[in-house]
Design brief:
24% of the residues lie in helices and 28% in strands. It contains nine helices and 19 strands. This is USP domain-containing protein.
């Protein structure tokens, strides 16, 4: 079954939300610029680029990605013109963001490169959609295919597509993967643990929803869903706040609480994990939150980043970066129309060896 590309419209199964976002373009005076703070550099908003700006902040905070991109010999970047090569321009932009400059990092070439690859400037974009597109461009345009696959594995959640006939107990299964987990939300209060558990909950299909069983030769009641095989070093979670009904898209401002540290082993039950599961370490730390402010038809993206150097939170709003507290990040849980709400969450796996080194 291979890759699940998630290209359908919002509200239809395992899909990306397609909404109309990012309507503010800022033009700050020099006095608004913040100096480089703990390795974080702001990014000017060019052509409604706050969606891409927020994603770049999360990529810059993903040191695993930086290390792999920096291994790539760009002198051999393939036949594609350098101005059209997304991974090349991403590498250059992230290197600039890591440099010692005090002004906002230049990233116009990366934005123009995305524009040439049909992620247009002066158009409103969905952050999860752009995130997945960039990862796909890396896979398609990087000359070093082995390195491109390593980058993909940073985010690859392996799952088992599971279908069991409830009459004869015959099971059909196949391995697939997702690069971000699209978690549907309820109208009321949510917790990340509940929505994650629900995503892997097997559903019973009866009556009109029965599935054809190859062994029985007819439609039968069944259990269907996804079971977890393996979590990657970085888990990207997409909180599906945009819902389409009868051609109308609305934003769910529902509250979604999420922890700084999560142990997925305590979240999932035995039936939600595949018998072929490969996981040994289940604890993850939150290190980036992509935030959306506004409605389904207009809005603005920012990012909260937890810097590895001092273990503190920072808020990046285009060219402006300032230190933040966890209490400020918690406001993005939502629950009120006036609040910016968390839209994407990035968790990094806690490696036991590193944890022992720190404690020692």
């Amino acid at each position: 079954m291979g890759e699940r590309r998630q290209t359908t419209m919002a509200g239809s199964g395992l899909s990306r939300s397609v909404s109309y976002l990012d309507t503010r373009t800022y033009r700050h005076s020099t006095s608004d610029y913040y100096s480089r703070i703990q390795g974080l550099r702001g990014l000017m908003n060019y052509g409604l680029s706050c969606c891409v700006n927020a994603l770049l902040q999360s990529f810059s905070a993903t040191h695993e990605l930086l290390e792999l991109l920096n291994k790539w010999d760009t002198d051999d970047c393939g036949a594609l013109d350098k101005a059209h090569n997304v991974p090349l321009q991403l590498q250059r932009t992230l290197q600039t963001m890591q440099s010692q400059g005090l002004q906002p990092a230049p990233h116009q070439d990366f934005l123009r490169c995305l524009d040439r690859n049909n992620i247009r400037l002066f158009k409103q974009h969905d952050a999860d959609e752009v995130f997945l597109s960039i990862l796909n461009f890396i896979q398609e345009q990087m000359s070093d295919k082995e390195l491109a696959q390593e980058i993909r594995r940073l985010y690859m959640v392996k799952v088992e597509e599971y279908l069991q006939c409830l009459e004869c107990r015959f099971i059909e299964s196949a391995t697939s993967y997702l690069l971000s987990l699209p978690l549907p939300l309820c109208e009321g209060n949510n917790t990340l643990e509940e929505r994650f558990r629900d995503f892997f909950e097997l559903q019973e299909l009866k009556n009109m929803d029965e599935c054809f069983c190859n062994r029985c030769g007819e439609k039968q009641p069944a259990r269907q869903g996804l079971r977890l095989i393996e979590l990657p070093p970085v888990v990207c979670i997409h909180l599906k706040r945009f819902r389409s009904t009868d051609g109308y898209t609305k934003k769910l401002h529902s509250k979604v609480s999420f922890p700084q540290t999560i142990d997925f082993n305590k979240v999932l039950g035995p039936e939600q994990v595949s018998g072929n599961f490969l996981q040994s370490e289940w604890q993850y730390n939150l290190y980036a939150v992509i935030v959306h402010c506004g409605s389904a038809m207009s809005g603005h993206y920012t990012a909260y980043i937890k810097h590895s150097g001092d273990n503190e939170w920072y808020h990046a709003d285009d060219s402006r970066v300032h230190k933040a507290k966890w209490e400020e990040v918690k406001y993005t849980f939502g629950g009120s129309r006036g609040d910016g709400t968390a839209y994407m969450l990035l968790y990094r796996r806690i490696e036991k060896e590193k944890e022992l080194e720190c404690s020692g």
